[in-house]
Design goal:
This protein is of the alpha+beta class. It has eleven helices and nine strands. A four-stranded mixed beta sheet has the order 2-7-6-5, covered by helices on one side. A three-stranded antiparallel beta sheet has the order 1-4-3, with no helix packed on it. Strands 8-9 form a two-stranded antiparallel sheet. Helix 4 links the parallel strand 5 and strand 6. The two termini are about 50 Å apart. InterPro entries: O-acyltransferase_WSD1-like, O-acyltransferase_WSD1_C, O-acyltransferase_WSD1_N. Its main location: membrane.
């Protein structure tokens, strides 16, 4: 059974010297030679592809993927250019071209009653590794496997020709597709330098403790749940003001926060002034990235239940310890400025 859908080639009209018709109309020269290493990855025996596999905890929406790819991948020149061989001097050049996103996003046809989805994914990727991408289009594609495996609700397989970039540059590109969603809360570049305004709202600590005991949660769980509820109300009002109607907040908003954890073995409060004796001064803290669920809950206590579930997972993970150790390692080898970028 052929489990790899055929790739529809993209027809590009070019002149004899390799320029696209669109470039000539614009009167621009966009040709750039491939670097020696990029050229090397086209040689026999070194024609290498990078394959990345990503599992999703929710069902995959192809329309969302395509929209993100248009705003990220296609803004990168290499992902919207052909690699054209110049017969005159034996070199290869990047030639910008129009990209049809549907030619690069392949939705596999699947039998959802298959015996072993995990084995199917393995076979699919193995078969994909031996199937080159047509050089009539930019050398990358994305395969969506809408199938539930033992570890994910859906699978995405990214395939890039190694001439597009190395592992670090491609990982940066993939991570750029997962940035937080643009919302009325997201500031522009340099916002951290602008004046801040603080609005104070007093709440009853006794009320928070009452909810804490009733929910078998912590004070932080209750505050976090209340924060998520408040963020939803705020965004709902802002979106309604923008559209002039009583619209709901988009369901696919991705918003996250940085939460710090104390990594000390003891958190008891002591009366001390001799720091050399106790050694408890300083900042021994790690941090985790916390996803915020921005949605309307019929039961307000669901905000706290969600917050408690997330925080329990974070506390049980090694993420805070890893970020603490990694930040120290980066600081040691690359300096404080580079380490500071980790939290930005």
């Amino acid at each position: 059974m052929d489990i790899i859908p055929s790739l529809n080639p993209l027809t590009i009209r070019t002149t004899k010297n390799g320029e696209t018709i669109e470039d000539i109309k614009k009167g621009e020269d966009h040709e750039q030679p491939l670097s020696p290493m990029a050229r090397l990855f086209h040689e026999p025996g070194s024609n290498v592809y990078i394959i990345g596999i990503m599992g999703s905890k929710t069902k995959i929406r192809p329309d969302v993927f395509k929209e993100n790819l248009v705003h990220t991948f296609l803004k990168n020149r290499r992902f919207s250019s052909l690699q054209v061989f110049d017969k005159e001097n034996g070199s290869m050049k990047w030639i910008p071209t129009h990209v049809n996103i549907d030619d690069h996003v392949i939705i596999a046809k699947l039998d959802h009653n298959m015996e072993s989805p995990d084995k199917f994914v393995e076979d699919y990727i193995s078969n994909l590794s031996g199937s080159p991408i047509e050089n009539t289009k930019p050398l990358w594609d994305l395969h969506i496997l809408d199938i539930k495996t033992s570890e994910a609700e859906g699978i995405c397989v990214f395939r890039f020709h190694h001439s597009l970039g190395d592992g670090m540059s491609l990982m940066n590109l993939l991570l750029s597709c997962t940035q937080d969603t643009k919302t009325p809360m997201k500031g522009s570049e340099g916002v951290e330098q602008r004046p801040r305004r603080f609005v104070i709202r007093s709440v009853s600590l006794d009320d928070i403790k009452f909810v804490k005991r009733a929910m078998n949660a912590t004070l932080n769980d209750v505050v976090l749940g209340a924060t998520q509820a408040g963020l939803y109300r705020y965004l709902h009002r802002r979106y309604s003001e923008t559209d002039g109607n009583n619209v709901d907040v988009p369901h696919d908003i991705r918003l996250r926060a940085t939460v710090f954890f104390n990594l000390r073995t003891s958190t008891t409060i002591e009366d001390f002034t001799d720091t050399s004796k106790h050694g408890t001064w300083g900042n021994k803290i790690g941090y985790s990235l916390l996803p915020f669920k921005i949605a309307l809950r019929k039961d307000p206590l669901d905000y706290i239940r969600d917050a408690k579930a997330i925080m329990d997972r974070k506390k049980a993970s090694l993420e805070p310890l890893f970020t603490y150790s990694f930040a120290n390692l980066v600081h040691k080898f690359f300096g404080i400025k580079v380490a500071g970028k980790l939290k930005s």
